[in-house]
Amino acid sequence: MMTLLVAAGVASLTVQVPASAASSGTTMLRLRGGLTLEIPSSWQVYGSADQVRVVTGSCARPKGKYFEPRCDSFWVIGPKALKTGGEGFQRYDPDQGPYYPASDVAPCATNPAYGQVLGKAITAAYRNVGVMHKAHYRVYPGRCVRYDNGLQKTTFKQREWYLPKEKILIVDQWATPGLATIVQNALWDY
Predict the structure, then answer these.
(1) Residue 46: which of 73, 9, 4 has the closest Cα?
(2) Is 94 within 8 Å of 162 (Cβ atoms)?
(3) Residue 27's pLDDT is what?
(4) What is the pLDDT of residue 48?
(5) Mean model confidence pLDDT for the chain
(6) 19, 66, 11, 75: which is closest to 43 by C-alpha?
(7) CA nearest 121: which of 170, 90, 157?
């Protein structure tokens, strides 16, 4: 197994590439708390141990902050960011609402000309994250609306997997193909 530090601006994050994975087009992304996700090697990783963005497609500014629009990606959020991850910069709690570290209307992920509005969870369940780890799983309906009159232009869904013991949250606004399976098949260091 060879260990590589991702050259895409990641501090204190290691990607391990086993010889078998390298030939299959996947990379082992080691995250906090012993969590490892096997992701396609074409995906790029940015951020730090507490806020990691995995870019899965087109992205105008991959090193941008959360709410950066026009970036096909998902986030892996750690405990520091969770302290202010609820709406109004409250502590994140999946029973109280989605990850939304803002107190105003944030730009829509697909088009910054519109604002995003998230509704109440339409799915609230538990999902496996690898073996012997269960996440609070939520799906929140999202709407992209005009700032001037609130007219809805498009919709999306924000999926979240939250592991309270490990203080890890995975947030996906792009319906990333294969992500649910990747999370379900996660590996853990024990």
Answers:
(1) 9
(2) yes
(3) 95
(4) 83
(5) 89
(6) 75
(7) 157
74 with 171: CB under 8 angstroms?
yes
Compute CA distances 163 → 23, 125, 141, 147, 171, whole Å: 31, 12, 21, 34, 12
The secondary element (H helix, E strand) that includes residue 4 is strand 2-5
Distance linking the first and last C-alpha atoms of the chain: 19
Structural tokens at position 82: 């969770």
Both tokens of 29, joined, read 């992304």
Question: 144: helix, coil or strand?
Answer: strand
The token pair at 117 is 């509005």
Torsion-angle region of 148 (φ positive above 0: left; ψ -120 to 50: alpha; else: beta): alpha
Tokens linked to 19: 């010889």
